[in-house]
């Protein structure tokens, strides 16, 4: 069991982006702009969906890791911290998804 967390990966991505290391995939990707980062996130989402529906458990794990990495890159470029996303998730914990949907679609 690893103690590696999404917050650790967020910190690494932030450090790479700040340092501008030449050998960094993160730096190269961010250099291509927000639209490219978002496009890569979309591609990884589709690959995750494919792994899920084909029932390949190992592939699903790998694609989910790619997806989370690319999500963190998009959050970084969009200037949104993981803590903000976690705060939003925490805010929702008192309400079921069905209640939230009903409140959103009412009236
Ligand atoms: N977790 C990841 C991670 N997940 C996926 N990827 C990269 O995301 C890319 C997505 O796969 P593709 O097949 O679409 O890649 P590609 O064809 O090279 O992509 P493009 O040329 O289209 O951008 C691959 O090159 C993966 O290596 C990642 N790259 C980096 N990290 C971690 O991010 C941290 C910083 O990495 P560097 O910025 O490279 O130092 C390190 O801890 C890494 O382990």
From TrEMBL:
GO terms for molecular function: ATP binding; phosphoribosyl-ATP diphosphatase activity. GO terms for cellular component: cytoplasm. Its EC number is 3.6.1.31. It catalyses: 1-(5-phospho-beta-D-ribosyl)-ATP + H2O = 1-(5-phospho-beta-D-ribosyl)-5'-AMP + diphosphate + H(+). It is found in: Cytoplasm. Transmembrane segments: none annotated. GO terms for biological process: L-histidine biosynthetic process. It holds the Pfam family PRA-PH. Pathway: Amino-acid biosynthesis; L-histidine biosynthesis; L-histidine from 5-phospho-alpha-D-ribose 1-diphosphate: step 2/9. Coiled coil: none annotated. The keyword Signal does not apply. Keywords: Amino-acid biosynthesis, ATP-binding, Cytoplasm, Histidine biosynthesis, Hydrolase, Nucleotide-binding. NCBIfam families: histidine_hisI, PRK00400.1-3, PRK00400.1-5. HAMAP family: HisE. Belongs to the PRA-PH family. This is Phosphoribosyl-ATP pyrophosphatase.
């Amino acid at each position: 069991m690893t103690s590696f967390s999404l917050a650790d990966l967020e910190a690494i991505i932030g450090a790479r982006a700040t340092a501008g290391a030449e050998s960094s995939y993160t730096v190269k990707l961010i250099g291509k702009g927000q639209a490219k980062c978002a496009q890569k996130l979309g591609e990884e989402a589709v690959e995750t969906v494919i792994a899920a529906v084909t029932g390949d458990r190992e592939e699903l794990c790998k694609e989910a890791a790619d997806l989370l990495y690319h999500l963190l890159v998009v959050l970084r470029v969009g200037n949104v911290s993981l803590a903000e996303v976690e705060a939003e998730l925490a805010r929702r914990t008192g309400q079921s998804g069905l209640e939230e949907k009903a409140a959103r679609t009412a009236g």
